[in-house]
């Protein structure tokens, strides 16, 4: 979930701001702990970091809290909830406690452990509300203005996590209450937030409000596949027939396509030959870019640990299904840890997608294409020239509309 990334970034930013003198090496060690699955290894690493970097329990409270939080999460992920709670209690700063509690909730949601997730989500909110208006709770040397900004930012994921769990448990009215608290004052909502909010509005019988919310999102070309599906159902109730719904959606889509055609055309790249590569697929068969001469090729640079990469896969499945004449190659790159190939294979086997996965174990191909971050899509025309490069992921509709336009423009070359 994107909420996990948001919370970890918030707490990590606090550590950086409260002690600007900390070395890059220390920060990297802390981040590695966040990815470590073995609790005992993390305990050993924690004490080693405290010793090597001479962290003081008074001056370096934030750093030590971050170490304890990572140990706590590793116990949670190992299913040892007793030790998880023990290490959460060792965290001195209340904001750090709520941050790691919320990350725990997100991890529990992933494995559908909703009962314990509900307990922790409620505890997170109770603790947050106990100190959110208390300036003395802020970390040392942290500007009050920045602290107030963080408090407002933190409310979003804390309340939404609880709303998500309550939704899964069928407590829709209560979930709607906390989701509206999460969205209060927030203009730039995550795609997942709009999905949840619209579903809760429908469950509460507020179909008109859900329709208006989804109409705005669909008309902007920023809806997810789930949002579009729900919107079609609500539109059918209003318009009365599938035919009228289709005509209405087509009219919206025409406007969106016109906008994308103008914007995307300006991004077209000329005279840049796509670097050739030979990579192994999951069956250890060598696949060469040269073998697809005369075809439009879309490269998707991704990784299993990359949340936006994973979030974009439903949209990639949709767009690839629309264009069987286009070759889609999913290049798994920057995979970390032990047995990266196994991680990729497990992901594909579990999700039955993506197909045509290639393994860029040393990131050589990503480097050849000057990939700065993932996910990144590269559109190559029939002549083997790079026509478009698009980075990141915001919503299903935006990705689908953008790639649809890029593919059609590449075909015209």
Automatic annotation (TrEMBL):
InterPro entries the record matches: AhpC/TSA, Thioredoxin-like_sf, Thioredoxin_CS, Thioredoxin_domain, Thioredoxin_ResA/DsbE_sf
Pfam short name (any one): AhpC-TSA
Keyword Isomerase: yes
Cited PROSITE patterns: THIOREDOXIN_1, THIOREDOXIN_2
Keywords assigned by UniProt, alphabetized: Isomerase, Redox-active center
Plastid among keywords: no
Any GO molecular function: isomerase activity
Residue ranges annotated for the Thioredoxin domain, each copy included: 268-408
PANTHER family: THIOL:DISULFIDE INTERCHANGE PROTEIN DSBE, THIOREDOXIN-LIKE PROTEIN HI_1115
Name of the molecule in the record: Thiol-disulfide isomerase or thioredoxin
């Amino acid at each position: 979930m994107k909420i996990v990334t948001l919370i970890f970034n918030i707490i990590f930013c606090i550590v950086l701001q409260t002690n600007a003198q900390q070395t890059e090496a220390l920060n990297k060690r802390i981040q590695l702990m966040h990815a470590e699955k073995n609790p005992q290894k993390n305990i050993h690493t924690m004490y080693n970091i405290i010793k090597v970097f001479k962290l003081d329990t008074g001056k370096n409270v934030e750093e030590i809290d971050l170490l304890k939080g990572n140990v706590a999460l590793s116990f949670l992920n190992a299913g040892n909830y007793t030790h998880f709670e023990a290490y959460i209690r060792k965290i001195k700063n209340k904001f750090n406690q709520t941050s790691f509690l919320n990350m725990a909730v997100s991890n529990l949601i992933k494995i559908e452990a909703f009962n314990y997730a509900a307990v922790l989500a409620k505890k997170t909110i109770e603790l947050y509300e106990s100190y959110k208006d208390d300036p003395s709770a802020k970390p040392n040397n942290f500007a009050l203005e920045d602290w107030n900004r963080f408090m407002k930012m933190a409310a979003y994921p804390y309340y939404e996590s609880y709303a998500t769990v309550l939704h899964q448990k069928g407590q829709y009215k209560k979930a709607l209450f906390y989701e509206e608290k999460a969205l209060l004052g927030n203009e730039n909502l995550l795609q997942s937030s709009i999905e949840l909010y619209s579903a809760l509005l429908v469950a509460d019988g507020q179909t008109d409000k859900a329709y208006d919310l989804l109409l705005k999102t669909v008309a902007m070309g920023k809806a997810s596949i789930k949002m579009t599906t729900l919107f079609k159902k609500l539109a059918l109730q209003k318009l009365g027939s599938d035919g009228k719904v289709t005509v209405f959606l087509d009219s919206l889509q025409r406007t969106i396509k016109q906008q994308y055609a103008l914007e995307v055309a300006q991004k077209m790249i000329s005279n840049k030959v796509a670097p050739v590569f030979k990579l192994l697929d999951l069956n250890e068969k060598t696949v060469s870019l040269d073998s697809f001469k005369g075809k439009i090729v879309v490269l998707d640079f991704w990784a299993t640990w990359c949340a936006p990469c994973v979030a974009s896969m439903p949209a990639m499945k949709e767009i690839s299904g629309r264009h069987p004449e286009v070759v889609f190659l999913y290049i798994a790159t920057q995979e970390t840890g032990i047995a990266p190939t196994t991680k990729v294979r497990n992901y594909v086997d579990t999700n039955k997608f993506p197909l045509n996965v290639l393994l860029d174990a040393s990131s050589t191909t990503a480097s050849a294409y000057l990939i700065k971050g993932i996910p990144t899509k590269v559109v190559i025309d029939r002549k083997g020239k790079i026509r478009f490069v698009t980075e990141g992921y915001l919503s299903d509709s935006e990705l689908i509309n953008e790639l649809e336009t890029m593919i059609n423009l590449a075909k015209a070359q």
